[in-house]
Input
Amino acid sequence: MTNYSLLDLVPVVEGGSVAGALANAADLAAHAESLGFSRYWVAEHHGMRGIASAATSVVIGHIAAATKSIRVGSGGIMLPNHAPLVIAEQFGTLDALYPGRIDLGLGRAPGSDQRVAAAIRRTLDSDPNAFPRDVMELQSYFADDGKTGIVATPGAGANVQLYILGSSLYGAQVAAALGLPFAFASHFAPQMLDEALHIYRSHFRPSAILDKPYAMAAFNIIAGETDAEAEFLASSLMQSFVALRTGNPRQMPPPVEGYVASLPPQFTSALNDILSASAIGSADTVKTGAKAFLARTQVDEIIVACSVFDHEKRKRSLDITASVFAELSKRVASA
Output
């Protein structure tokens, strides 16, 4: 059985507010929990008017407080932005507050542009070993093994599950070398998905954490009562992608009819590439797309990205998604 989880960028919609986005995130997490989603992740992005999860550890605490059992974490924390000790303390605190429920997905991308990176007071480290070195330092704080000579308080002995994230081959290599679970960001960068999964699985070294690979892949699912409704709802995500790729990130816009048809061919082609790891449509269409994606990737877990302007329509999309995965699981169990 393949697990299914949810990735939430905590979108700020046009006409909305950060407070509204955070309230919606808590409500959506509770709804996802009721539907059987395994985990709920939020991601670190900076300097973007349409994303409210920049203070990621704070948002994770907000989500965990609104839920009871679902795992909550980061997809991810951009580790080069932070001292590993600080992240150990933050996530050690979260684990103390919500024991056994906290995930820490780690990425090496800045989650920002150069100006924002400078404001965060970070410099880009060209050393290819910097990221894995920071991950191992973070592991040392949680293990309280004395290698750093520092006791992270909170953090030492915390039961925080680590994941390595990636949108290229590098993350797959790091996850394999360290024997950690790997999650690929195919919801926006699907081009290297298959190669990354192959590298991760073929180079995996068993560790005290894992004795065999555990692979996750992000997959856009926007579901509606009909294919036409889902395509309409997905136009908000499409507009956001086009705005980002043209250097004009914005708050999530409302959906518009016939959006794809209004685009010039080069934008349509780019959208098709970006959304190649997606299922947009009715329950039957989503089921066909999810089944094909699972057959192609053989991942242990799909983490669903679902960006919809209307909050209630977004919750309905999750209803349909959960029913699809429940049906697929029954078929696997009876096969």
About this structure: The longest strand covers residues 215-223. The mean pLDDT is 94. The two ends are 11 Å apart (CA to CA).
